[in-house]
Amino acid sequence: MIPSSWPRPSIFQDLGVRPVINACGIYTDLGGSLLSPEIMAACSELNQSWIRMTELLDRTGELIAGWLDVPAARVTPGASAAIALGVGACLVGRDPANWSHLPDTSGLKNEVLLQARHLEQYKYAVCARLAGATLKTAGNSRGTTADELNMAIDSRCAAIFVPAHLEDAATVPLETVAQIARAHGIPVIVDAAYLNFPLVPDASAKDFTGVAKDMMSSFHRRGADLVCFSAKYFWGPNAGGFICGRKDLVDVVAGLDFTRFESGPHKTFGRTFKMNRFDVAATALALRSWLTLDHAGRLAAYSRQVTRLAAMLRDVPGIKTRPAYFTLDEKLVPSPVNCLVVEFGPDAARSVSEVEALLAQRDPRILACVENGALVFVMESVREGDETIIGGSLCEVMKVHA
Ligand SMILES: *Cc1c(COP(=O)(O)O)cnc(C)c1O
Fold this sequence. Notes:
Layout: H1 11-15, E1 20-23, H2 37-46, H3 53-68, E2 72-76, H4 79-92, E3 111-115, H5 116-119, H6 126-130, E4 134-138, H7 146-151, E5 157-163, H8 174-184, E6 188-191, H9 211-221, E7 226-230, E8 241-245, H10 247-256, H11 258-263, H12 277-292, H13 295-312, E9 319-326, E10 332-333, E11 339-344, H14 352-361, E12 365-371, E13 374-378, H15 386-397
Parallel strand pairs: 1-12, 3-4, 3-5, 5-6, 6-7
Antiparallel strand pairs: 2-8, 7-8, 9-10, 9-11, 11-13, 12-13
Helix pairs in contact: 2-12, 3-12, 4-10, 13-15
Pyridoxal-5'-phosphate binds next to helix 4.
């Protein structure tokens, strides 16, 4: 999708790292996303000058809130930091006298309630504990009822936390969670980190105008008080993200973050989540591009890449290929198309794990994921054109010349 050839700038040699053709998708430990040349140029322009970080964070927050049609927003160094700061804001509330206490919660409400079925599949809950919160669960691994959730709320409960990507038929939906929370006067905080586009966009839909905005603002409409997003998923910086929602709570997040530690009286734990101006600006700019991106065109580009790769592999004996969609929760579904699944039969020259390892040793390294015994090449992170390098390498590894 991201057009270019494969340059080999000397920085790789200089630092002793090998570049990667990433056919796994968007992963933090592979660097997240690629930033567009426009955003890199904007960062370079920002580097010509100092700025006030409070001003940059306040203005970008207002812009993001306006684009998403939510009351307020603030950039953070990732969704993880947004969770820690957002939960912190729920614990301390509006009284600045409390802000420097965290992660010590003596004298404060300090429990954050989750549905047990959510918590057992959710590794980022540790970020809520970083603010000083204790996690409490309602229900069990099979699910939670609205009654169980309601009964679990006591005077120590500071917020209910919902990892929105884990909502399913066995858990209480966000709308109901919000109703219950509101009756108790406590906020709902949502991790919507990768829900910046529909999990499986309808392949037949041709008009994607506004689809990203609708998706990202839906959690606020459904009753969430605070919603956390990660910039890595909207082609922003790996260390970018934001929190949005209720203005009074976002204002507390601003009070807890690194800016007030430096230029205010508050010695807050949020000082840890320092940002540089490039990541703040790039997060806002990447979001704006994402909201106006032609998402039908984005999907069409993946489809072309998959077709090209499949054509190159047509004559490799013993393998079978099929286009599919690799979801952000790492499942293969038939449509729309964003990846090529390569299955290795008994008569293939090599096994799937051999091929995976050989591709990863090349220069540039080619990384793909293994799913259900097949090798999956996800085009969401493959620059347009690089699929031919993948195809050529795969043929070579299989000792067949394309
Ligand atoms: C990546 C991710 C996060 C963390 O986001 P960062 O911006 O990397 O801190 C949180 N929740 C989910 C579901 C994620 O996929």
